[in-house]
């Protein structure tokens, strides 16, 4: 069986800039190879940031699985292989990257089945791609559900607020308590300046998460968001692009 690719999961509380950082990670990685992008947030904001239209999601597949008669059954094919083939049909392939979107289910009930399918997809497709970037659901649910397992690099995004910093500490504590395997956990301070970095550095050290970099407030991001332009097309000299590029160099990703 092929070796697993490097899995980078991006998490944090809502509104901190997870999707921006995930998008720029994918942008830089696509200059070297063809990474897999996974939008694991039911809000599904990553496709728009990448400039990609998605027609089917894992949520749609959940509806099919919930109605077995909707899926042609082949007795000669193992169930897990059949599921993997259907997940493969959901992939949006571009010349630069591939994208898989979690989405929402239309039917009632919890996200247990969607998360099971997503977990299966991560386990299987991480062996087809050298790099996998997961834009996680805001909050801590993906940890408590153990959707993110065997992640090589966990990136926690925080805005320059004490609440965001505390969330990063809670994420680390939950990961350790649930014995989730992470190679390394890092913190990125987004929409912050060097003064705010200095202000929070001691508190960040106290929570036991390494600060890997700071992404400044970027007027280009606001301008792109205002008109719905894909963030992956930010100018090369955009402050956020330059900052994330430096962070990826420190992480050994580029």
Automatic annotation (TrEMBL):
State any GO BP term from the record: negative regulation of cell division
Keyword entries, A-Z: ATP-binding, Nucleotide-binding
PANTHER family xrefs: CARBON-MONOXIDE DEHYDROGENASE ACCESSORY PROTEIN, SEPTUM SITE-DETERMINING PROTEIN MIND HOMOLOG, CHLOROPLASTIC-RELATED
The answer on whether this UniProt entry bears the keyword Thylakoid reads no
Provide the CobQ/CobB/MinD/ParA nucleotide binding domain boundaries: 7-226
**Record-linked Pfam families:** CbiA
Name residues in a coiled coil: none
A GO CC annotation given for this chain: cytoplasmic side of plasma membrane
Keyword Nucleotide-binding on this protein? yes
- SUPFAM superfamilies hit by this protein: P-loop containing nucleoside triphosphate hydrolases (SSF52540)
Its name, as the record gives it, is ATP-binding protein
